[in-house]
Amino acid sequence: xxxxxxxxxxxxxxxxxxxxxxxxxxxxxxxxxxxxxxxxxxxxxxxxxxxxxxxxxxxxxxxxxxxxxxxxxxxxxxxxxxxxxxxxxxxxxxxxxxxxxxxxxxxxxxxxxxxxxxxxxxxxxxxxxxxxxxxxxxxxxxxxxxxxx
Length: 149
What we know:
The chain is built from three helices and eight strands. By secondary structure, the chain is of the alpha+beta class.
């Protein structure tokens, strides 16, 4: 993956990150058939944040102000409050139901994000904001919020 700028720099971090709600966390995986959180099973969804634009940590208040602006931009869409990452890189996020891919990418770019996640059921896409390149993956639950297969 040489020559892809932020994609090359951030890919490993995005793949090692947990996403979701406090009780339904997931990771991205190339393997189909892994359990996934309940919210990611039936419809189109996106995970968005306005925290840490460009992959650079910002002050708490700046992140919260940007997140509030993102929330305002999502008026009319239903979403669950989410969490991306952990430790120093814990970011508030929103798991938005029914948001089209082009809208998720537009918001990611508007809030200077490196990438956004967009999914349909268990299928997930890591969408790089600068290039628009889509990396197709699957969700795999990290918690007990799964149903038996």
